[in-house]
Design brief:
With about 60 residues, the protein is an all-alpha fold. It has a domain of about 30 residues. It contains 2 helices and no strands. The protein is globular and about 40 Å long.
Length: about 60
């Protein structure tokens, strides 16, 4: 489960969290509070592209 972002810093609390890539995208790219972002969708697309490229060479266990 993904925790809420810290209200003062806007960051995830320190730690490791288990989540699907879809859950991460829903919470930190597509969520209503990020709708005005001009960069999140593009950054996510680059992340997905890089991850796909890496997976074509080696197994990816965690990100």
């Amino acid at each position: 489960m993904l925790p809420a972002l810290d209200t003062q810093t806007g960051l995830l609390p320190l730690g490791r969290y288990e989540a699907t890539l879809e859950a991460i995208k829903q919470n930190y790219v597509d969520a209503p509070q990020f709708q005005a972002s001009t960069t999140r969708a593009e950054i996510w697309q680059h992340f997905e592209s890089a991850t796909t490229g890496i997976r074509s060479v080696v197994p990816v266990i965690c990100v």
